[in-house]
């Protein structure tokens, strides 16, 4: 299953990588790709949306499902 979440606060490639790493650590995530220009992250897998948002926020960014 693919889903998108909104992520704000990314300003560089390193930020995108940080968001991707945080999301990929969530159980049930098979892959993640962040895009600072569209302020989104696309997540593959069946992880809980709340867990995805928490992971991004714990990494220092704002997120919403």
UniProtKB/TrEMBL annotation:
<dbReference type="InterPro" id="IPR036163">
    <property type="entry name" value="HMA_dom_sf"/>
</dbReference>
<feature type="domain" description="HMA">
    <location>
        <begin position="1"/>
        <end position="64"/>
    </location>
</feature>
<dbReference type="InterPro" id="IPR006121">
    <property type="entry name" value="HMA_dom"/>
</dbReference>
<dbReference type="GO" id="GO:0046872">
    <property type="term" value="F:metal ion binding"/>
</dbReference>
<keyword id="KW-0479">Metal-binding</keyword>
<dbReference type="Pfam" id="PF00403">
    <property type="entry name" value="HMA"/>
</dbReference>
<protein>
    <submittedName>
        <fullName>Heavy-metal-associated domain-containing protein</fullName>
    </submittedName>
</protein>
């Amino acid at each position: 299953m693919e889903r998108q979440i909104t992520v704000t606060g990314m300003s560089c490639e390193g930020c995108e990588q940080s968001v991707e790493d945080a999301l990929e650590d969530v159980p049930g995530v098979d892959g993640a790709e962040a895009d600072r220009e569209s302020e989104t992250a696309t997540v593959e897998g069946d992880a809980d949306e709340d867990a995805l948002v928490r992971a991004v926020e714990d990494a220092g960014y704002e997120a919403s499902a």
